Amino acid sequence: MAEPHPTGPGGPGRVHVHDANNTKDVPWYIPIIPALMSPPLIDLLENYAGMPPSEQEAHLYRIRDLAWEVFPMPSVGLFWWLVLGLSTHPHYRQLIELMKSPPTDPSHPRKFLDLGACLGQDSRKLIHDGIPSSSVYASDIFPGYESVGHALFNDAPTTHGHFIAADIFDSSRSSPLVRSRGTWDAISIFMFLHMFSREDLLLAIRQVLLLLSAEPGSMIIGAQTSSTEDHEEVLSTPFLKEGVVRKVFRPSKETFKQMWQEAALDMGIGVKVWAEYRPRWELGETEVEQNYSESHAMVAKDEEQRGKQRRMFFTVERL
Ligand SMILES: C[S@@+](CC[C@H](N)C(=O)[O-])C[C@H]1O[C@@H](n2cnc3c(N)ncnc32)[C@H](O)[C@@H]1O
């Protein structure tokens, strides 16, 4: 099996910190929090982070600016990190059951990884839903998101040391993700894989499969933007600096399933892959997505492509 190539200074679809346009004068640095403050989020902030509802809004504006300084992701500007996407996945109960089931080896408690976690709202929701914080980890390419996540959820003492700063494409032995290969019972990849070109998506799939435990029933769970017809979109200014262009791939659910199946087959891993288009998951997301779509160079330019865009939920289960 061929090893994915190590991180280079700019694969065709990768976003690099030096390419970012840091200005707040972009349409996705929106002036007000959209209707994303769902009852489960208010509950999480109140009963997990200990923040009374009356203080939550001001707190979230402060947190957004801290996260923006780390890296000005459109999702940060749009308060996307308030969407508890994982908990709305149709297989969320299965994930909880897996994480609560006794480990085969009692000396190795179950482990969950939120990959491309940004501020880690999904992993905090999982802890709030009863999974011990000692079993829950988050990872992102930008180390600075760790302390902002702690500030958001006021949980540095309980989740300290559970953030893995790493690039998913780094296959060198010094990568903490590489050192953790084969140890994860469950891996969440929400709104992550659609950030890459077709070539990088294939590499990322292999990297994620290498992370998964060999135990039958271990699972990868996620969601992302997809399309009923495969196509590539161009990412450019104002998200990226003038002159910097990257491509992102929007696979159909059929193509996406096939990519996982072929990679797993090539790696000698048995998997069952499920993928479905689903309605949007949170009240207010339509408003946010519209804002995002109309202003963001990442989004399909023509109406025909836009009409084909879908939110896809997926699960990859080890046989
Ligand atoms: C759109 S955000 C999604 C965040 C979160 N999962 C959610 O659903 O709100 C994608 C995240 O992937 C991270 N990321 C991008 N490229 C990465 C890479 N090569 N390795 C690891 N993380 C990466 C970004 O920093 C960002 O936090």
From TrEMBL:
Source organism, top-level taxon: Eukaryota
Gene3D superfamilies, A to Z: Vaccinia Virus protein VP39
PANTHER family: METHYLTRANSFERASE AUSD, METHYLTRANSFERASE DOMAIN-CONTAINING PROTEIN
Protein's recorded name: Methyltransferase domain-containing protein
Provenance organism: Phialocephala subalpina
